[in-house]
Amino acid sequence: MRPVAATAVRDRVIDAVLVCVERVGLGALTLDEVAAEAGLGRATIYRHFEGGREQLIREAVLRELTSFWTALAEDVAHLGDIESRLVAGLVSADRRLDELHLLRKLVSAEPEELLPTLFESESILNVQLRSYVVELLAREQLREGVDPEAAADYLGRMLVMHIASHGRWDLSDEEQVRRLVRTQFLAGILDDGL
Amino acid sequence: MLDAAVVCIARWGVAKTTLEDVAREARCSRATVYRLFPGGKQLVLESAARREIERLLEVVGSPLATAHSLETALVDAMVAAGGFLKRNAALQTIIAHEPELLLPVVSFDQLDPLLAACAAALGPLVERFVDPTTAAELIEWCARLMISYTSEPSERVDLSRRQDVERLVQRHLLPGVAVAALVPSS
């Protein structure tokens, strides 16, 4: 089997899973449905995804989360400093949260199915998120004694926590988000002469 | 009854705990359990969880109320909370064996009621150090950190260790409070 063709088939199937979940929900999601949407036979799907429905959902979650974070990175790519990127990133995360159709449905319907998936996706994405933040920090003047790796771990946690639950902050209000980022995210990390 | 429920969860987890177990542990009859908790197991669990949260707020509240500086207040409160969560056998059983139960609680804004409850109960206790808006923000900030480091433990930071908490407070929280005084809140 040629690897390029295999990747294309896998991508097509995962695309189909996400389309089906948005259309029929998670409970009604079947392999037949996915096969029809992808324009492939059941047997082909099983050949590429031996784990069946569970594996499809697992890979679709990773894809959905990867797309979410990639879109955020693209939204903020034109901005220079880390403060602007974090502010714009939180505002656009708030706007894009609705795009996580599959994740929302899994959390409310089948959290036990989601959990191993989420840990797996999270550890992959966490590594990428932390290294993205370390790169941003490399362009900034840091306070004395700040370890960029530790700071990136802290910022990654804060980002995920705030995107997952807004609490008292209105993430659609850029002015509020700037206060949040300047006080809770960056005050202890950036050397801004204070 | 709620004590009994917490003991049972620590021993067997949430899924395997039955109302019979709770009744036996509390040395009363099933009928009594149902009279007190007509909603059955679900209501017992919710009531037990709510009471554990109230306990946590009490444990955290006294250092916040008595400390002489903001730094001591935050460090003592977070060390107390970290210790409480670590020693809470029911919570540790859930984290170890049934973490999926916590997932719906921590995502898509499900945490908001808990964050708001912490800010409402504990915010006023630090208003002698900072303005009310900053106080509420600060408490919510600490609560998020407690939740993050409890649900996803870190090699670097263990919030039941005083020196780790001190470092976190000095590194992030105190500079954040200093900046908050300079940045307008809306």
Describe, in plain words, how this protein is organized in 3D:
The complex is a heterodimer of chains A (194) and B (186). Chain A has helices at 3-24, 31-38, 42-48, 52-76, 82-96, 101-109, 111-138, 148-164, 174-185. In chain A, helix 5 crosses helix 9. By secondary structure, chain A is mainly alpha-helical. Chain A is built from 9 helices and no strands. Chain A folds into 2 domains: 1-50, Arc Repressor Mutant, subunit A (Orthogonal Bundle); 58-185, Tetracycline Repressor, domain 2 (Orthogonal Bundle), CATH 1.10.357. Chain B has one domain (49-180). Chain B is an all-alpha fold. The model of chain B has no long low-confidence stretch (mean pLDDT 90). Chain B has helices at 2-12, 19-25, 30-36, 41-66, 70-87, 89-97, 103-106, 112-122, 132-151, 162-180. Chain B has 10 helices and no strands. Chain B is elongated and about 60 Å long. The longest helix of chain B is centred in the N-terminal third of the chain and has 26 residues, at 41-66. The interface between A and B is large, with 37 and 42 residues.
